[in-house]
Amino acid sequence: MKTRFLLFISTLIALSFGSCSDDNDNNKKDKEPILFNSYIEASDKNISSQAFDSNWDKGDAIGIFMIRGTGLDGIIDNAENKKHVTTGTNYFCPAKVNTDAIYLPADGKSVDFIAYYPYKPTSAIKGNLFKIDVSIQTSQKAIDLLYSNVANEITSSNDIVLNFKHQLTKFVFFIKNNNIPDLRRLTTTLEGFNTKADFDLATGLLSNENSSSTITALTKVGTTAISEAIILPSSSITGRKFVFTLPTGTFTYEVPATTTYAAGLKYTFDVSLEDGGKTQVTPTGEISDWGVFGENIDIEIDFDSENGTQASPYSVTQALTKVGEIGKWVNGYIVGSTANVKTFGQDVNTNILLATSATETDESKCIIVDITGSAVQNNIDIVANPDLKGKQIKVQGNIVNNLFGGAIAMTNIIAQEGGAENISGTEEEFFSETFGTVEKVGTAWPKVGVFSNYDMKSPIVYSDQYGNSDIRSSSSLSANVWFPKDKNAELTITGFNTSYKNVTITFELASNALNQNANAIKVLCNGIPAISQPNFEFTATNKYQEFSTTIPDGTTTITFLSSAIANKAGYRLDNIKMKGTKKY
Predict the structure, then answer these.
(1) Which domains does the chain have, with CATH numbers?
(2) In this structure, are residues 488 and 466 in contact, taking their beta carbons and an 8 Å threshold?
(3) CA distance 261 to 265
(4) Is 548 helix (H, G, I), strand (E, B) or coil?
(5) Is 194 left (phi over 0), alpha (psi -120 to 50) or beta?
(6) 160-162/218-221 β-pairing
(7) CA–CA distance, 246 with 186 (Å, rounded to integer)
(8) Residue of 276, 320, 328 whose CA lies nearest to 302
(9) From CA 120, how far away is CA 139, in angstroms rounded?
(10) 210, 307, 442, 526: least CB-packed within 10 angstroms?
(11) Is residue 42 within 8 Å of residue 75, measured between CB atoms?
């Protein structure tokens, strides 16, 4: 949906202004307040969706600032966050004439306008920050942030134009009913997306995205279903999912970590759910600024209620039909083991039999899991752990045929969940990054996202959304991450091993100037500040101090964040290590 607001002094002021408020302002009766005429222009494609609305509702309110200069420092005539409302027509008038009316200044000098929707009282806007929370989607009008700062150098009340733009991102899922008998109990959720952030009304910038959680989309169901969600713009983040839930099963699409969803765009998907068959989620080619459409993205999901991931593993019955698939997770009950062929007999420590039921006795309904020499053998060996019989576990490996006398089996087992705990239970280091060696590229040090000589390789990814941090060294210090002063910069790490609990991260920081505190660098876990933060005043330059903090279970992203406000010296980060105890 493309939205534009036009502001001008109307010849109808005398007729219309009285309908906005019963208040009278005798002190300014010799001036004409600006009357705001606003309309919402419908989508170019005229896509109808549940929250789509081309008309203003009674009581809709915007906030307006009249300023001179940059940002919101130069408020003119106390015209700060003036509330204007509509009765349901296109006219926006002061909520209260005495306190909210805006008049062009008497000195005749030019002014600028900044405006936003939906209105919040001034007491709720601290330091020019509009608090965003998209965790509740029941009223999308309440979270659809619009912003305008393009009405500049205004000297006349005629033809004042404010062009508002959407600052968030919108998803629309058109969900088709194929052979699923009933969509009425459909729930669409988005997992792993941040839900809270700050929007600076002075600069138009988002910051402090955090609180990764599940978002339940607004859904309307008939013979087909439409699910909609307004979300924060999303850059490269691991762990994001689209989940469609019905009584017949849960269908999950894992968003690639590199996928970016931009501010002001609407992403429209066609979803086809089929009971027990292939289900597609395919964008219709409509990626738009809520009015203008753009590029295509093809997404296809194999939905059999489960998709072979750790979060949504295959059942044993499904796994028996998935020969040739690599690195898949399978969920089942341990019912025994086999010597050479798939049959029950004397227990051995080289394999186990998994079944859909804990009481299964039909070997043809079981899958063999070859654990010989695998890292998880001690944890699910039923000879050493006889109590595991009848227990439910998950294993990850390859699904193959013609093993154990032609039976279908799982081999190359690389992970397991459930079963016996790690035998030793001892703490071990599983991540160590010293940043190797580094050389300049031409005359510049390589940026974090470009440097390739990290100690920890793929699937681990290092990034900086601001593009300001780099890897450098000096005559006295080996390769390290450099956070420059007076700039936003970060080091974000994803893709590390998450099969550990009670994780502790240690790292070293150094300041480029004396009497600076290490608390200028923040540690975030999944976008949320860690409980313990660096706190140390440096008494020497470029001398490392070690810090440590615990990492909450479930952390998949760690960020070292340097803000332009806090970093007034320049800081170096080195020797990052993580250690913990195996979960399984």
Answers:
(1) 2-166 (2.60.40.2620), 169-301 (2.60.40.2630), 314-417 (2.40.50.200), 429-582 (2.60.120.200)
(2) yes
(3) 8
(4) strand
(5) beta
(6) unpaired
(7) 5
(8) 276
(9) 16
(10) 442
(11) no
pLDDT tens track for 99-145: 998 888 889 899 998 989 999 999 999 889 999 999 999 888 899 99
Joined tokens for residue 445: 């040090």
CB atoms within 10 A of CB 546: 13
Residues near 30 by beta carbon (within 8 Å), at least 6 away in sequence: none
Pairing of strands 165-166, 146-154: antiparallel
Whole-number pLDDT of residue 275: 55
The structure tokens listed for 166 are: 């959407």
Q: What is the model's pLDDT at position 19?
A: 44
* pLDDT tens figures, 72-99: 989 999 999 999 887 766 666 788 888 9
Joined together, the tokens standing for residue 355 give: 């079944």
Q: Are 167 and 133 in contact (CB under 8 A)?
A: no
Helix then strand then coil, in percent of the chain rounded to 5, is 5, 45, 50
Tell me which DSSP letter residue 264 carries.
T
In 127-223, DSSP assigns E strands to 129-133, 146-154, 160-162, 165-166, 169-177, 187-200, 205-216, 218-221
- Print burial letters for 194-211: b (CB count within 10 Å at least 16), e (below 16): bbbbbbbbbebebebbbb
Angle at 207 between CA 515 and CA 142, to 5 degrees: 145
Query: Do the beta carbons of residue 505 and residue 523 sit within 8 Å?
Result: yes
Two tokens, residue 244 = 């469609």
| Regions in the chain scoring below 50 on pLDDT | 1-30, 39-54, 277-288, 291-305, 421-424
| Phi, psi (rounded to 5 degrees) for 379 | -80, -25
